[in-house]
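FAQ
Q: What does a multi-component entry look like?
A: The components come first, one per line:
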Amino acid sequence: MTEEKTILCEFKVLNKYGIHARPAALLVKTAGKFSCDIFIGQKGAEVSAKSIMGLLTIEGHQGTRLSVRIVGLDAEEALAEIAELFENKFFEE
Amino acid sequence: MAITLKELLESGAERLSLELVWGEGRLDRTIEEKALNRPGLALTGFFQYFAQRRLQVLGLAEFTYLKSLSSEEREARLRGILDKNVPAIIISRNRNPLPELQMLAEEYGTPLFRSTMITSHFINECTLVLEELSAPRDRVQGTMLEIMGIGVLLQGKAGIGKSETALSLIGRGYSLVADDVTEVVRTGGRVMAFAHELTRYHMEIRGVGIVHVPSLFGVSAIRRDAMLDMVINLHPYTNDADEERTGLQPTEIEILGIKIPYFALPVSSGRDMANIVEAAALNYKLKLLGHDAAKELDEKLIGNFLRKTVKL
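Then the predicted structure of the entire assembly, as tokens:
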């Protein structure tokens, strides 16, 4: 049995339009696949990555650095998939 | 799909005040061209471009003209038309069939109808009846409701709660069109839904049995038919389902070749499906009025983000 892990990291928003509805929905869908808790935030205020309305309030425009905190057994797998979304600009442009 | 005279008589008996004068045994004849013709020119002996595959309607003008002729002449002119093997002859304005016409109809085996309607009204209404009879139709699984003017077809596997959701919605004042089995017909680019005649206004509720909706909830709880505006599919809640989370990418399904907006709603304990179906229908109505909430919020966000990006 693997142990529960906490991962802290940071991602930069690369896509032009930021974390608007479509990227937010992608994040929620990805986060929903894992049992771990995922939080995304800015300046200390964080929201669950499984809440679309929450993600829209973090004001993740282009160039913003967002903190990501993942807590759970499958934290590493979740991190890999979330990193892919940010790196690929949420498959926009 | 060709329409038989029998079908025309069945659906036209009331709407068109149509009655059969002669031709009981010939009602299996088909109407090859779903339109009507007034054979005025043909009665004068001019048969070029005569629409012989259509129903022939004799109105006041044709009748008066025929009356002005001698009996032999009248028979000869009418024979010319019946000789073309027209599907049937319809007399409007409740005129008595002329003896020559009746005789020729029997001789040629051409059914003869009569309507009390005036000719122009008859032609308009009969065209509609023919149109409806030949419209593509199908039967689909699902419970049909009308919510604030929006026709909603609820689909989903047996036991998911379609009828229960419908029952809740009826309780809120919306109307049932059909339970579990819905007949659909295409009319002028849209799909009209209604119940099968036999089961109309009834629904089955597990544990209670079959109920008669207007008896329980009053006549405002039912509607004979409604235009199908959206399809809502109820499915069991799963974690990885590819669900629509923003409402920005509407999906559609095709019914009778017409694209209908489609929404998949996950069902889980604690989710009041009637409430959600109602919200979906009202949100769709709002969209029709030109307000797309999801799109408007997204545009606001993007505008906001872009302004900030430039500043940095």
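Q: Is there any commentary attached?
A: Sometimes. For this entry: The domain at 5-91 of chain A is CATH 3.30.1340.10 (Histidine-containing Protein; Chain: A;).
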